[in-house]
TrEMBL record:
Tree of life domain: Bacteria
Taxonomic path: Bacteria, Pseudomonadati, Pseudomonadota, Alphaproteobacteria, Hyphomicrobiales
Localization in the cell: Cell inner membrane; Cell membrane
Chief localisation class: membrane
UniProt topology in membrane: Multi-pass membrane protein
Ranges for domain ABC transmembrane type-1: 57-247
GO cellular component, one term: plasma membrane
Record CDD domains: TM_PBP2
Organism (species): Neorhizobium lilium
Any Pfam family the entry gives: BPD_transp_1
Family: Belongs to the binding-protein-dependent transport system permease family.
Coiled coil: none
Name of the protein this chain belongs to: ABC transporter permease subunit
Keyword Ligase: no
Length: 262
């Protein structure tokens, strides 16, 4: 019986691997087929020689960095106080942070356009800085489920209450406790949430497009309209960036202090 279950498990894993890898392999093969009867990296060379590629990627990386910074400032104190001071509020907070998985991004961005258009009291969309701020807020909302779960998991792995009591006895304020005691102990979880946020931001298209921001996702769509092989190369590069972020999560987790102690 165990042998049959093991074979079924391996069969399911193989089928899942084929299901996910075949489209990626086909896309990679197409991106190398710009020359007839031979493979070449011309499509990738064309992408890397385009100044707009680096401009849009740099813009998305900067927006991702801002999103991560503001996400840490928002999520870490929220998860900390909910776990230690307001445990009765945890079901409500978990429901709220899961809403971005249910509400489509297009609904969120249309709400932003409705509330912050040029005809509103706070016309943020009329300036580039305001639109950038709205984009960061939107990405914070999209990444909130992943960031909050990562931080909450990190708080579960440490004795936050004992650490807080010890720091409070020594005269530390709540902000000091979070900054110098809690944050260093959950740094691996925070970094995991940061890499997930980076992966979400770098490939997002809907919000950046409707807010007319020069993001990497909109660049991929723009190239896809006019060219054939370069979009496939961009898709492979986007997958590589995403998987690189996932690999960094595993690397950080493997060399974390908690793992070394085990």
């Amino acid at each position: 019986m165990k042998t049959v279950l093991r074979l079924l498990l391996w069969a399911a894993m193989v089928l899942a691997g084929i299901y996910f890898l075949l489209p990626l392999i086909s896309t990679a093969e197409f991106s190398l087929s710009i020359r007839r009867d031979e493979y070449s990296l011309d499509a990738y060379h064309s992408v890397f020689s385009d100044p707009e590629f680096f401009a849009t990627f740099g813009y998305s990386a900067a927006i991702a960095t801002c999103t991560i910074i503001f996400g840490v400032v928002l999520v870490v104190p929220m998860a900390y106080f909910v776990r230690l001071r307001l445990p009765w509020l945890k079901p409500v907070v978990e429901l709220i942070v899961m809403l971005p998985l249910v509400v489509p991004p297009i609904v969120l961005v249309f709400g932003y356009l409705r509330l912050f258009s040029s005809s509103s009291v706070l016309p943020l969309t009329s300036t580039e800085m305001g639109s950038n701020a709205l984009l960061v807020c939107g990405y914070m909302t999209l990444s909130l489920p992943y960031f909050y779960r990562a931080v909450d998991t990190g708080l579960q792995a440490i004795d936050a209450r004992t650490l807080t009591d010890a720091a409070t006895i020594l005269g530390a304020s709540p902000i000091t406790v979070i900054r110098l005691v809690i944050l260093p102990n959950i740094l691996v979880s925070v970094l995991s949430g940061a890499f997930l946020t980076f992966a979400v931001v770098i490939s997002e298209f809907v919000m950046a497009s409707l807010l007319t921001r020069p993001a990497f996702g909109t660049y991929i769509q723009k190239v896809g309209v006019a060219q054939a092989y370069e979009p496939a190369a961009l898709v492979i590069l986007s997958f590589a960036i995403t998987w690189g972020a996932m690999g960094m999560i595993q690397l950080v987790a493997r060399f974390s202090p908690q793992r070394r102690e085990q």
